[in-house]
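Morning!

This is the sequence you dropped in the shared folder:
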Amino acid sequence: MPSPGETVLGTSYAEFAGGKGLNQAVAAARSGARTAFVGAVGDDAAGHLLRTVLSDDGIEAAGVATVDEPTGLAVIVVDDEGENMIVVTPGANRRVAPLGTVSARVLLAQLEVPLDAVEASFVTARRSGVTTVLNPAPAADLPPILLRHCDVVVPNEHELTLLGGVDRLLSLGCRAVVVTRGAEGIEAHTADEVWHQAPFEVDAIDTTGAGDACCGGLAARLAAGDTLHDAVRWGAAAGALATTRDGAVPAQPTAAESGVLLAR
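The structure's back. Tokens below.
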């Protein structure tokens, strides 16, 4: 990884469709959920590619707007151990608007779109009895009103610290806090219990998109009626499998693949 002011030589280069929201939508669809995506893209080659990805995975795209901004872009550096550093330029993501209505079992969101759009959409969703799942990434200090309308929050350790810790999130009304800890697995907290989901052993080559696979898989299984325990275990398996492939969208596993790993 380069340090500030340093230039390093890379060994290879590739372009993949991605974005946290897209990754999570694909992960949910491949985990068996009927999935609709809400977002914004530009009228450019990247925007057309992302619409094709949605179509190929059978994801409803009526909620995707085309706006007068370039499609969002991320530059990702991956080292020999599979760890990554990411710079995101939001572009069209800045123009994503709040949802007026939410007709779904689960609404999953992340923070590459405007915070006020996520907040308003979660308030609307909870009023309609929809389960809300928030992946608070990229990390940000979030207003209490948004956290009060989260059923499940899925942060990593850095994001959890910025949000004030598990106790604060539960005290604000979050039903569960599911902390992803990379190679150490997942630690899940509710008001009544704490449990650890051990990591699945795989040969990791690229951790890009692994957290998104976990979030999408977890949300899909909650929508299917699974318990939180079972949904977390599925998310852990999906996240582990995503590290065995390059890229983000291409790395998202199918339900059958996750099922094989879960059966080991």
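Headline: Residues 228-242 form the longest helix (15 residues).

More detail when I'm at my desk.
O.
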